[in-house]
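Supplementary notes for students who missed Thursday's class. We covered one full example, reproduced here. Read the sequence, then the structure, then the short commentary at the end.
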Amino acid sequence: MSLKVGIVGLPNVGKSTLFSALTKKEVDINNYPFCTIAPNVGIAQVEDERLNKLHCLFPESKEIPAIVEFVDIAGLVKNAHKGEGLGNQFLTHIRNVDAILEVVRAFADENIKHVENEVNPLRDIGTIKSELILSDLEQIARRKVYIGKMRRSWGKEKEIAEAEWAILEILENILDKGQWLHPLPKIPEKLIPLAKELIKNFSLLSAKPILHIINTKGGSDKAEKEFYGLNESECLVVDVKIEKELAEMSKKDLAELQLTSQLNNIVRHSYRLLGLITFYTSGEKETRAWTIKKGINAGEAASVIHSDFEKFFIRANTVSLNNLLSAGSWKNARVKGLLRQEGKDYLIKEGDVVEFVIGK
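Structure (token representation):
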């Protein structure tokens, strides 16, 4: 399942440094605006103690963790929605991701030029928010011109146009107030399915979940987060430069020096932003964590492993990870009645261990 997190922000705030730390992929992080033009793409593994424990049941198998895909997008500037600083190009890159990781500069360094010549995190958060909202408003305005013509027609098309117009008016009113569209704003229940479809089709930027990474020198505490007007779920305070250095150290060295990295915390937050859950498969050859969207059924989950698995699906032998670990093996889980046989419509739960039975 290819879901992406876009790393965005103003130029020279530490986006590419964070991307490199997360993905272990070296990129150009020189100190000048628009050092990044084409997006850099890389993956980060999700550290998972549960997977490690499951692997102990099959120590000869290959252990494969879940991953999160990150996209390092060039810095936006004020009036990006008007095309400044290649803004239209970069906004398009943001439309192609599923969630946003916004890096905000909160450190002073006279050797690293700030695009506004002054470090001001609150202003920068407002700038990015405004640019994304203004871009969405332009999208909606263009759509309203087209829908306005459809409303003057007759028949079924007119009914659809009227419903879409009502949704566009609601969204436009919310954006005009400077408010984000995520989570989905209050909309009449009968219009919700169409609203979700419109937001998806137009990839509205402000409808994407967002996490702010406050790039600062030093520690992190609740008071500092509250200073930026963000709650615990919206914000992580991180020293990105230090995280890049920690990413280059071995786990052994980190343990000996009693150093802790926040990178996996960022990956985990990104995982949740995307609305993902993990299920596992385990056997003699491979013990693996698989990534799916919450609410996916067993048939759809099978297709993540192989496209033919859904087509030839018979059943899913399923057990919770904790029950399997306590039983010690698939055989013991079956004897103890912990193993369930589920059909194609069964909704996969977080932490399920699944054995798909396939026929032809």
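Commentary. The chain is about 40% helix and 20% strand. Residues 31-35 have pLDDT under 50 and may be disordered. If anything here is unclear, bring it to office hours.
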